[in-house]
Amino acid sequence: MSARALWLAFRSGLGGRQAFSTKGSGRITVEVIEHLERLALVDFGSREAVARLEKAIAFADRLREVDTDGVEPMESVLEDRCLYLRSDNVAEGNCAEELLQNSRQVVEEYFVAPPGNISLPKLGEQESFQHS
Amino acid sequence: MKAQTEVLNRRCVEAAVMTGLALNCHINKKSLFDRKHYFYSDLPAGYQITQQRLPIAANGSLTYGVFMGNKQSRMATKTVRIRQIQLEQDSGKSLHDDLRSQTLIDLNRAGVGLLEVVLEPDLCCGEEAAAVIKELQLILQALGTSQANMAEGQLRVDANISVHHPGEPLGVRTEVKNLNSIRFLAKAIDHEIQRQINELESGGEILNETRSFDCKLGCTVPMRDKEGKQDYRFMPEPNLPPLVLYDSASLPAGTESQQVINIDQIRDALPELPSATRERLVRRYGMLPEHSFTLLNEVGLLQFFQNVMKETRAEPKKVTSWVLNTLLGYLKHHNLAVSESPVTSSALAELLDLLDSKAISSAAAKQVFEELWKGEAKSAAQVVSEKQLELMQDREALEQLCQSTMEGHPQVVTDMKSGNPRAINKLIGLVRKATLNRADPAEIKDILERLSS
């Protein structure tokens, strides 16, 4: 959650992406940051953001201090709940026109997308990443 | 428009349990849902809900038949292990428009429930894969969980292929997608196996990549847009609790039946599976296993066969032969489905009755069939009388004909008596001609042998 908030805050602040050296305990490498950015499309635009991430990881690591020997791992916080099963009836739909209006560009009843995933610019390139 | 979290459809769960049972799987009474994250235009949410940690069913098997030998006449049974069956969401459908450099996205099927069946790498070639998929189609159709029509995308198959020397571990695999028919599936697999062998033998290496089958070129090509090894960041699906299934022993009291799935109840209600149907046919009608496979593999043929059996007195072996050889032969030759057959099951039943009562010879029966095939709404009996194909019923007249034929060809008779087998056949032929083909060759032979002894 904190990473996303940082993304919104820093997006306008920085013109481009900067190379940075590892900060804090130095556990998070540049490669890991770049990897995370591509996977989740977040933008760790500053040293502070990376430091915040490292603090978040350290916070979560404290879970390891708990002795869990012989304890069944919890699969889901919802484990005591019943999974609701919906009966196989069509209750809604037929709203194609309404849904297609969500898109700037449509062709017949299809949404239009670029030919494939557009790669993120590599680390170190000067041009800023275009947000739509 | 309100935002909604995912809700699981009960029918999907029932279908998954039915399929798992039909494939001899262990049904996990508790299974879990996970999110698989990746970005693609046809995945609006940016993740797909699947069952990565603990799927609904696992460790099953599928037994199938492969035709052996050059004439495809013998059948061998083999088994492929089922690793697991999982419930997951479908993505939308992408149509690539290379001309305009864009992709058109159809989201109608996004979010719809899918069943993924994962097999172990027990198969060795395209033919085995084809046989497995064919059997899977028959099972799903029998269960009613899917019509499994590949051309319509009701069943999608991805093949993972690798090669290795015997005794060594499995090689690097490639995934082949875009297989729209069983025929292409077999072709693509065999091509990819050969491609990998050629590559390795010339010192190259196999990349762990995704390839697509190009049916025009008849080969696999690397698929664009697959960026190497993906990190899907699997995490438990926060909105769906574990899926809990019950059996008769563990059924909780007082719960609403609509919310509870009983595995035992589903098992009891399973319809007859193709393998059981085939066994029943072999047992009941004494046909070869190969025949039972053919009857089930051809759409509508089993029903046709059973309809004929209901209406005719003829023996099952005769019916089997006529349906599988004559009828199917004509259908294949004219590229027709069973439903398009100009000869109805009633017509064939009537024809076989005439044959069975020795009203006509089998040669005549073939002629009648050919006439019926024209589809002129005549009955078998009508054709027989129009073409005067009835067997001579007058034994005495036949004997006289045999006698006179023998008198007319004394040299042939001598040959026959001296044991020349071709001589008697010649006489039979002559008598048949004299009777305008209205006598049974076996009967003629009988009489000739008696007369010449």
Automatic annotation (TrEMBL), chain A:
UniProt KW Secreted keyword: no
Record-listed E.C. numbers: 6.3.5.-
Gene Ontology terms for molecular function: ATP binding; glutaminyl-tRNA synthase (glutamine-hydrolyzing) activity
Keyword Mitochondrion set for record: yes
GO biological process, one term: regulation of translational fidelity
GO cellular component: glutamyl-tRNA(Gln) amidotransferase complex; mitochondrion
Catalytic activity: L-glutamyl-tRNA(Gln) + L-glutamine + ATP + H2O = L-glutaminyl-tRNA(Gln) + L-glutamate + ADP + phosphate + H(+)
Pfam families noted in UniProt: GatC
Predominant localisation class: mitochondrion
Location of the protein in the cell: Mitochondrion
UniProt entry keywords in alphabetical sequence: ATP-binding, Ligase, Mitochondrion, Nucleotide-binding, Protein biosynthesis
Superkingdom, natural source: Eukaryota
Quaternary data: Subunit of the heterotrimeric GatCAB amidotransferase (AdT) complex, composed of A (QRSL1), B (GATB) and C (GATC) subunits.
Family, per entry: Belongs to the GatC family.
Purpose of the protein: Allows the formation of correctly charged Gln-tRNA(Gln) through the transamidation of misacylated Glu-tRNA(Gln) in the mitochondria. The reaction takes place in the presence of glutamine and ATP through an activated gamma-phospho-Glu-tRNA(Gln).
Protein name per the record: Glutamyl-tRNA(Gln) amidotransferase subunit C, mitochondrial
Natural source organism: Octodon degus
Organism placement in taxonomy: Eukaryota, Metazoa, Chordata, Craniata, Vertebrata
Gene: Gatc
From TrEMBL, chain B:
UniProt-annotated location(s): Mitochondrion
Enzyme Commission numbers on file: 6.3.5.-
Residue ranges constituting the Asn/Gln amidotransferase domain according to the UniProt record: 303-451
One function term, GO molecular function aspect: glutaminyl-tRNA synthase (glutamine-hydrolyzing) activity
Assembly and oligomerization: Subunit of the heterotrimeric GatCAB amidotransferase (AdT) complex, composed of A (QRSL1), B (GATB) and C (GATC) subunits.
Protein known as: Glutamyl-tRNA(Gln) amidotransferase subunit B, mitochondrial
Gene name per UniProt: Gatb
Cellular component, GO annotation: glutamyl-tRNA(Gln) amidotransferase complex; mitochondrion
Record's keyword terms, sorted: ATP-binding, Ligase, Mitochondrion, Nucleotide-binding, Protein biosynthesis, Transit peptide
Catalysed conversion reaction: L-glutamyl-tRNA(Gln) + L-glutamine + ATP + H2O = L-glutaminyl-tRNA(Gln) + L-glutamate + ADP + phosphate + H(+); L-aspartyl-tRNA(Asn) + L-glutamine + ATP + H2O = L-asparaginyl-tRNA(Asn) + L-glutamate + ADP + phosphate + 2 H(+)
Annotated function: Allows the formation of correctly charged Gln-tRNA(Gln) through the transamidation of misacylated Glu-tRNA(Gln) in the mitochondria. The reaction takes place in the presence of glutamine and ATP through an activated gamma-phospho-Glu-tRNA(Gln).
GO biological process assignments: glutaminyl-tRNAGln biosynthesis via transamidation; mitochondrial translation
Entry annotated with the keyword Metal-binding: no
Main location: mitochondrion
Recorded family membership: Belongs to the GatB/GatE family. GatB subfamily.
Family annotation (PROSITE patterns): GATB
Originating species: Octodon degus
